[in-house]
Amino acid sequence: MEVIEVTDLRKSYGDTVAVDGVTFTVRAGETFGIVGHNGAGKTTTVECLIGLRRGDAGTVRVLGEDPARRRRALAQRLGVQLQDSSLPERLKVAEALRLFGALYRDAADWRRVMDRWGLRPLARKAFGDLSGGQRQRLMLALALVGDPEVVVLDELTTGLDPIARRETWRLIGELKAAGTTVVLVSHYFDEIEALCDRVAVLARGRVAATGTTGELVARTGTASLEEAYLALEGADR
């Protein structure tokens, strides 16, 4: 079953075309990657997915809803972690989870979420005192405290050291094992290869190709997703 359907999505900012006819679907329970270099249209696509922006043309449906029109209702079923997410510096970890949990009608027990993501030892620690990896773990937990059906993660590991990055990968793997639908947006090709069932390759605001890493590598006759991207991006010029 398809839980996300994007059809011919277009979005411009003045004379700049950010998204130019993007089309893809995401199936229930899969981890779906959106990959591309900076400026490829990833962030605008995500913002349309979660209702922060409305496309100029085309359609977006998430769990059967139009995010631009039904953002508040969809927020009860959708978990989101954006690239620039932050919290007040003095807000403690346990306080953040409790407050976010109160926003949802059918939230998971925030204490269990705290334990699941290994945040119990940090419960009384302020956000401003957390390391980069600890902050990302907390932001991921906050995206999940509403017990969402779909989770959208935008550039989740940007700025993390290799150890924190691998730990974040492990947490995403746990989401996949639990059957949660995950949309993972990244410019790290190794990350998409390691975590995603299928991927949409974005280049200059368009979908250059979709498929598994193996399918894209075979299609381009290359040895990795990054090499496949470069071949697809060059062919699209």
From TrEMBL:
Keyword ATP-binding: yes
Domain (ABC transporter): residue spans on this chain: 4-229
Single GO molecular function: ATP hydrolysis activity
Gene Ontology BP, a term: response to antibiotic
Pfam families: ABC_tran (PF00005)
InterPro entries linked to this entry: AAA+_ATPase, ABC_transporter-like_ATP-bd, ABC_transporter-like_CS, ABC_transporter_ATP-binding, P-loop_NTPase
Membrane protein topology class: Peripheral membrane protein
Subcellular location: Cell membrane
UniProt keyword Nucleotide-binding, yes or no: yes
Single GO cellular component term: plasma membrane
Keyword annotations: Antibiotic resistance, ATP-binding, Nucleotide-binding, Transport
Record protein name field: ABC-2 type transport system ATP-binding protein
